[in-house]
């Protein structure tokens, strides 16, 4: 750690030399900018909030204090994690742009290949958990391109930064950090060597640590829950997650809908996280599905497939269960579309 501090000190010294203005005010401003941009020199263990967190881990979970003091003493704020958390693509990208990332031909054919080589596990997951195989595959496809992009940031630093330097969701990330540390102890990971997304999501399925702890399973029964190396464990864990959130086997997710008067349904579009009305009630409001489907309750989804105006769907319970994986309608629709395309590709 001393070496690391010296290295940072040298780097700061060099950048200090490049400030050549004579104007004192400019110098002060430059120094202020430099200190904003430089990595913070305060290791997390010096923050009182981190010290109380450590105490809590020791008292509540009998966690090894020396381990925690050591890792928090050599961990520093990762600024990029906060910038990225404020600009998530789900929040700012319209559907027509969003879906292009997940519905290209390569992702469809890779999905079919993934399904073929995991036929046995997918069949077992369908039987044991009642979750449709193409949805399992599509979730893996959208999350990580079937395990190809699982994130290359050490999760401990990301979670620590979000837990103590991102007040908007600090409480949430402190509990995820707690779950990560418990997982690390349980699975024998060296803290700081587990890579994931900038927000701390792990493995092929991108579970947050609390879900990894609660819902991930050892589906291939080799004694470890390995969501990076075992496609079987990833399949079983997703199926278990979807079952836990109420997936209904064989039921539709969403059906394209026709809307008679857009203004009339304006305040009902993309409302809530569960079905709003029965099909009959929707018909009375001038909303019909374009294919015959037996009565259920549904929610009305409107997403822009083109720039000008939204396309509508009536969405059923299963759509909202996909939203329990990621609370974005664009996400849920992409997963559903990818699942359908993979199924069509297999039939062709
Ligand atoms: Ca396993």
Structural class label: alpha+beta
The domain tally reads 4
- Please identify the top-level CATH class of the largest domain: Mainly Alpha
For the secondary structure, the number of strands is 7
Question: Helix tally?
Answer: 18
Strand order of the largest sheet: 4-6-7-3-5
Architecture (CATH level 2) name of the largest domain: Orthogonal Bundle
Helix content: 55-70%
Radius of gyration over all CA atoms, rounded: 24 Å
Distance between the termini: 58 Å
Name the bound molecules.
Answer: calcium ion
Output the helix-strand order.
Answer: HHHHHHHHHHEHHEHHEHEHEEEHH
Can you walk me through this structure?
- This protein has 348 residues and is an alpha+beta fold.
- It has four domains: 1-38; 44-76 and 151-201, Orthogonal Bundle (Helicase, Ruva Protein, domain 3), CATH 1.10.8.350; 89-150 and 217-249 and 327-348, Lysozyme (Orthogonal Bundle), CATH 1.10.530.10; 254-315, no CATH class.
- Helix content is 55%, strand content 8%.
- The chain has helices spanning 2-17, 24-37, 48-61, 65-73, 79-85, 89-92, 95-100, 105-117, 119-129, 133-144, 155-165, 170-187, 209-215, 231-244, 262-265, 279-284, 317-323, 329-347; strands at residues 153-154, 195-196, 254-259, 277-278, 287-289, 297-303, 311-315.
- Strand 6 and strand 7 (311-315) form a beta hairpin.
- Helix 12 crosses helix 13.
- It starts with a helix and ends with a helix.
- The relative contact order is 0.11.
- Bound molecules: calcium ion (CA).
- Calcium ion binds at residues 218, 220, 222, 224-226, 230, 233.
